[in-house]
Structures are given as C-alpha cells and as structure tokens.
Amino acid sequence: MAESAVSHSHPLDTMLAVSDVIRNDRLAKLYARVLELDSPTVKELSEGIKSSTTTIYEDIKHLVEINLLERVTETQPYRYRASQVDMTIQAGGETFQITPTLLVALAERHSNENISLYIDRHGVSGLVTAIEYGRAYTQSKMNARIMAREQEIPVLEAETILQELQEIILEAEPDISTSLNIEELDAAVDERPDE
After folding, report:
1. What angle do CA 106, 19, 177 make, to 5 degrees?
2. How far from the centroid of its chain's Cα atoms is residue 160's Cα?
3. pLDDT tens digits, one per residue of 146-184
4. Of 104, 96, 107, the residue nearest 133 (C-alpha)
5. Residue ranges of the DUF7437 domain (predicted)?
6. Confidence (pTM)
7. C-alpha dihedral (118, 120, 122, 125), degrees to nearest 10
8. How far is Cα 18 from Cα 28, in angstroms, rounded to an integer?
9. Domains in the chain, please, with CATH?
C-alpha cells in the first residue's frame, strides 16, 4: 500500500504525480530547483533553468495541479514551495521509499555522470535502493563495502554513488543526523557473514 505526505491528495494521485515527475526530466529539475530555493518566484526559477519563462509557467501550473508544488503567496509575483513527498511502495516483495531526495537525484542525472551511469546500470529502482544505503552512509551506519557486498556491485561503484547521493541527501533532507562512529561502523562490517 502506498502512503503519501502530500496534503489533500489521494495516495494513488500522488503516486501518479510522482511517476509523472520521474519520467519527465524538466519537471524533476523544476521540482528540485523549487526545493533548493525554498519558495522562489518564477523569475528566480528561470535564472537557474534552461527553459523559456512560458515553459516554466506551464510546468509550475502542472506541478501545482498535481499537488507537488503549492503557491504560498496570494499576490504577484507568486512564490512556490515543493510539497514533501514521502511514499512507501511495496512491489514484488520489496519496499521502496519515494522522497524528494529521489526527485532531486533524478533531476541531476543529466548533469551528473555518476548518477546517470548508476541509473543506466541499475534503473530507477536501483537508485531508490542506493538512496536508502546513502541515508545510512550519511548517518555513518553504512559503508561502501557493505553496500557492495549486499548489492553485489564493485566497492568503487558503491563508494562513488554513496558520495554523490550524500550531497543530495544533505541538501534534500537537512534534518538527517550525521554523527560519525567509526568503531560502530567497523563492528557492523565485521558482524556480517561473508557470502
């Protein structure tokens, strides 16, 4: 079952809206930019996005209609805020968490070669899984060796994507705790059986 934190939306509507953004790079970039700037105007958005102002207006209108953006001012110039998406989807015995972090990572796939390559190799579902590892990595509860072993990928690939995602996670999830406990981390690696 999917749950959503987007207000005034049925979870199915939110899932479809998020799916729309996942498939459309321009919408993902716009959502990520609004999230980054907190409550920008269209003019502020147009300074960082390579689209015409008309296209930005149309995309904002669409994102407002599907409840992924909300207008936060009543007078012009209007300011917009990104809705905090938090969905859990279960499919085929696996659970995937869809958050703004995923949308930001997808928005960066064409400007970030490492994220693009990871998506090419493992798909969006692989990226969702990597983000979960990335959260644990950012909180010093995980390292690249553990991810590499569990996901059966090279350690260098795991380290590369974890470092890329750490920056995105810290930006998109500023409340995440980042305390480092090396002894606890090493103990976790030593406790895992070799396969």
Report:
1. 50
2. 17
3. 999 999 999 999 999 999 999 999 988 888 877 655 565
4. 96
5. 110-173
6. 0.77
7. 100
8. 9
9. 11-82 (1.10.10.10), 108-191 (no CATH)
Which tokens go with 2? 């999917």
Tokens 């994102």, located at residue: 63
Helix (H, G, I), strand (E, B) or coil at 67: coil
pLDDT digits (tens, 9 = 90+) for 77-114: 999 999 888 888 888 888 888 889 999 999 999 899 99
Q: Which residue has the tokens 């890329």?
A: 164
Whether 134 contacts 102, CB under 8 Å = no
Angle among Cα 45, 46, 51 to the nearest 5 degrees reads 125
Among 104, 91, 93, 94, CA closest to 131: 104
pLDDT digits (tens, 9 = 90+) for 22-42: 889 899 999 999 999 989 999
